[in-house]
Structures are given as structure tokens and as C-alpha cells.
Amino acid sequence: MVDSIFLSLSVLTIGSAIAALEIRSLIYGSIALMITLSGIAGFFLLLDAPFVAMFQLSVYVGSIAVLILFTVMLVRRELIFNKIEDPRRRYAGIGLMLIIMLGIGTIIIGSGLKSVETDAPSVDYKKIGEDFLTYYSPALIVMALILTSSVIGALALARREDVTSDQRTD
Amino acid sequence: MTNGLIDFVLVSVALLAIGIYGLSVKRNAIRMLFAVEMIVNSANLNLVAFARFIPNSQGQTLALFSIAVAASEVAVGLALVIVAYRMYKNIDIADFRSLKG
């Protein structure tokens, strides 16, 4: 059985996920996305994974949401409120969403996952640190390279080439 | 644990379906990035949930890697949106069909 914390967290997460896509202003949409990501962090806390939850909070809510907010503010104002979509495509999308939800949902409810319960103690986060530094250390190094290259790539992409330093007024 | 594995998996399925809906319907590039974030987060929720109920620590490790990759993906994606906005003065996906400068 589910408890009330789980129910309220899932209502918050899914409701704000729908709001992030459907609300008219992109700024409010990105704030709703922030609430969704915090809700996922709450699920991680319920799953006894506090390290992953804090990582999620610091990476997603701390950096990605701020990045999205700044990008939204760089865009012209009427585009933020712009909402062109084909109504037929929209109904087809809602139908697809319901088919996926009901189809995969009935498959999962009918499967043996229903009886999976555990009383085992949760994994200590020290074990994750050990994993990172022993077995997964090559992957950790590759991850650092990926993050560095993505930062360099993002900087190189977003650089303006039409403004040279002698054209600046300041 | 009072919550079973199936509850978390069902929440993750709902989030996945909402993300697919957003990807297929929305034409705004930034909203499509929102939808991609939801799909990645539903995958992370699944990873951590299964890791809790097995139980082992490798699911959490994989979820951490996945969060880091998603962060770099969003950084590059938003930079691409900014470049496309500078070229077309619009963030509508339908305008990006011919991506030439």
C-alpha cells in the first residue's frame, strides 16, 4: 500500500509535469519543470537514496533549471507566449499518451512486479563512493571528459561571431 | 518500505507518457527539451527504484552517471536553441527544417 507522502508527491510531480508542457508562459513552464524535478528528488529520498536525491537537486534544480530560465529570457517576449499547434496533432498526442499509459500500465500491473516488497536495509552511500573509485573509475574519468567537452561545445556554439572586440561600445 | 516497487514504476510510466506526448505535440524547441528531461527523469526513477528493491548499489551509480549525461545534453541543447534562434529569430521547430546558415 502507498502512504500519503507518496500520493501527494506523485500528484505534485505529474501535475506539474503536465503544467510544464501546457501552461502558456515558458517562464512559468520552466518553474513547473523545476517542481517536477524536485518531486523526483523526493521520490529518491523515499527510496532511501539520499545521495542521488541531493545530486538531483544540485544538478537539475540548481543548474539546469537556471540555465533554462536564462535561455527563456534570451528569447523574444512574444515567442515565450507563442503557442502554435495543430489541434488534430494534439488530440493524436493525447491519444498516444493514454495508449502508452494504459497499455504499459496494464502490462506492469499484470506482471509479477506487484508482489515485490523488500525489508532489506538500504544501500549505504559509502558503497556508491567505493564503486565510483574502484570498479567505475574509468567511467568516472570518461564522464569528466564528457562534461568538459559539453561545456566547451556549448560555449563554442553560443559564441557570437558578428561582434568583434573593436565594435563594442563599452 | 510501505510503498511497493510497482507504485514507483507506475509513476515513472506516467511521466514517460507525458514526455512522449510533449515530444510529439509541442513545436516549441524549449518545451521539447522539457519533455526530454521528463523522459530522462522517469528512467532515473526506474533505475533507483529497482536498485532499492534488489537491493544493490549499482543502480544508484548508473543513475548518477545518467544525471550527469543529461546535464551535459541540456547544456549543448540549449546552446543549439540559442544558435537556431539567432539564425531564424524563432524557436519553432517547423522553421528549423532546413538547418543552413
Structure write-up:
The termini of chain A are far apart. Helix content of chain A is about 75%, strand content about 0%. Among the domains of chain A are: about 80 residues, Four Helix Bundle (Hemerythrin (Met), subunit A) (Up-down Bundle), CATH 1.20.120; about 35 residues. In chain A, helix 1 runs antiparallel to helix 2 and helix 2 packs antiparallel against helix 3. In chain B, helix 2 runs antiparallel to helix 3. Chain B is mainly α and about 100 residues long. Chain B is elongated. Chain B has a single domain, classed as Orthogonal Bundle (Helix Hairpins). The model of chain B has no long low-confidence stretch (mean pLDDT about 85). The longest helix of chain B has about 30 residues. Chain B contains three helices and no strands. Chains A and B meet through helix 1, helix 2, helix 3, helix 5 and helix 6 of A and helix 1, helix 2 and helix 3 of B.
The CATH class of chain B turns out to be: Mainly Alpha
CATH architecture of the domain at 1-83 in chain A: Up-down Bundle
**What do we call the CATH topology of chain B?**
Helix Hairpins
Under CATH, the topology of the domain at 1-83 in chain A can be stated as: Four Helix Bundle (Hemerythrin (Met), subunit A)
- Please state the overall shape of chain B, judged from the principal axes of the Cα atoms: elongated
Strand content of chain A: under 5%
Strand count of chain A: 0
What kind of oligomer do you see?
heterodimer
Mean pLDDT of chain B: 87
Number of helices of chain A: 7
CATH class of the domain at 1-83 in chain A: Mainly Alpha
Helix and strand run of chain B: HHH
Please report the two chains with the greatest interface, counting residues with C-beta closer than 8 angstroms to the partner's C-beta: A-B, 87 and 72 residues
